[in-house]
């Protein structure tokens, strides 16, 4: 954590003041959700995340480094093997990924395990495979499957659609080549939290087709399942400032200001042009809620866990309803009442319950 001392001291003072001002705990939140959320809200400001959309690329990279230094690492459960590898992208880049293998017995028996491709969160700008190490390990152990956690390229240097393209490339690789690392290419799922859930949705929708077969009900996704935790799914909802976006705009970790800034940098790069943000934001690969009905219908069984007190609640609920209305089967909402955005990777009791539930969902839908 290379921070100047002056910064540390003023950060500590402002943090204390923030906590004193906000000392009344909202009755709908658990303490374990409320206090970290208020601290992170403060850190967004202290590290520069709230003004991401007014910075140039170098300054955003500096913000990325500050946030990475402050991101806690969860307690890691043991897995049999952790391998760093790369997967080729369509444009000649080697996408780094971390492969978690949970079971030496299965490996010794040459038994193929299911594969979950995991896409980390962080608003398409922050985060890394390392930042979700604890969740990736827990999913590997609890699914008795491989987890391939992807360091997809991110904004500001690689705005939309590169992060989606990298996600698609890794999933397509797994569907073809999983056997080369001990995985079962017929049992590949995608999972992700926050922006990673948005990318997971875009990846699953990208694999849909051909349209006539989907509409005739004669097509199944090559993915056995998707788990999309608290995903942003519509740029229009973030831009509109209504419903859950208005209700939780200034509280509980994912501030509306932060979400809007992240969307802008994702959609149009550093110092984003508002016109371009608006146009790109309507692309369904950026805003999966805008996907045509036939693509929604082609989703694999999809679990959508989310927090009741998060700005994204409305778009997540509307996405599930829109998908179900097209005839997509197995789309399931799971609402966590007393927690906030980001709970999945927090190590809190809700997180442990959710990881276990998600692993059960993956196991059930990806059984041999
Ligand atoms: C590991 O793989 C073996 C062989 O398939 C299986 O019997 C065992 O249940 C697996 N272990 C766990 C913890 O799932």
UniProtKB/TrEMBL annotation:
Tagged with keyword Membrane: no
Alpha/beta hydrolase fold-3 domain residues: 117-344
Keywords per UniProt: Hydrolase, Signal
GO terms, molecular function: hydrolase activity
N-terminal signal peptide: 1-26
InterPro entries referenced in this protein's UniProt entry, alphabetically: AB_hydrolase_3, AB_hydrolase_fold, GDXG_lipolytic_enzyme
Coiled coil: none
PANTHER family with a match to the protein in the record: AB HYDROLASE SUPERFAMILY PROTEIN C4A8.06C, ALPHA_BETA HYDROLASE FOLD-3 DOMAIN-CONTAINING PROTEIN-RELATED
Designated name of the protein: Alpha/Beta hydrolase protein
């Amino acid at each position: 954590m290379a921070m100047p001392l002056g910064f540390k001291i003023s950060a500590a003072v402002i943090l204390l003041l923030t906590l004193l001002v906000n000392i009344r705990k909202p009755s709908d939140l658990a303490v374990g959700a409320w206090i970290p959320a208020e601290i992170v809200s403060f850190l967004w400001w202290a590290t520069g995340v709230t003004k991401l959309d007014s910075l140039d690329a170098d300054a955003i990279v500096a913000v990325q480094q500050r946030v990475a230094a402050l991101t806690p690492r969860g307690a890691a459960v043991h897995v049999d093997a952790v391998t760093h590898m790369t997967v080729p992208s369509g444009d000649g880049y080697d996408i780094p990924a971390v492969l978690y293998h949970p079971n030496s017995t299965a490996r010794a028996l040459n038994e193929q395990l299911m594969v979950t491709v995991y896409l980390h969160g962080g608003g398409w700008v922050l985060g890394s495979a390392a930042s979700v190490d604890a969740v990736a390990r827990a999913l590997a152990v609890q699914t008795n499957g491989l987890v391939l956690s992807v360091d997809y390229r991110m904004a500001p240097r690689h705005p939309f659609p590169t992060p989606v393209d990298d996600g698609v490339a890794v999933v397509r690789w797994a569907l073809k080549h999983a056997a080369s690392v001990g995985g079962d290419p017929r049992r590949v799922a995608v999972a992700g939290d926050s922006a990673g859930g948005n990318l997971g949705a875009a990846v699953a929708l990208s694999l849909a087709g051909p349209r006539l077969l989907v509409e005739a009900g004669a097509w199944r996704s090559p993915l056995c399942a998707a788990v999309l935790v608290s995903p942003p799914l519509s740029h229009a909802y973030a831009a509109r400032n209504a419903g859950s976006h208005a209700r939780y705009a200034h509280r509980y970790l994912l501030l509306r200001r932060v979400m809007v800034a992240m969307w802008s940098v994702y959609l149009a790069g550093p110092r984003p042009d508002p016109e371009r943000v608006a146009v790109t934001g309507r692309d369904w690969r950026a805003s999966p809620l805008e996907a045509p009905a036939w693509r929604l219908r082609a989703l694999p069984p999809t679990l959508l866990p989310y927090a009741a007190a998060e700005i994204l609640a409305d778009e997540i609920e509307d996405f599930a309803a829109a998908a179900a209305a097209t005839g997509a089967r197995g789309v399931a909402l799971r609402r966590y009442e007393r927690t906030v955005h980001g709970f999945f990777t927090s190590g809190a009791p809700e997180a442990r319950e959710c990881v276990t539930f998600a692993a059960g969902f993956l196991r059930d839908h990806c059984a041999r």
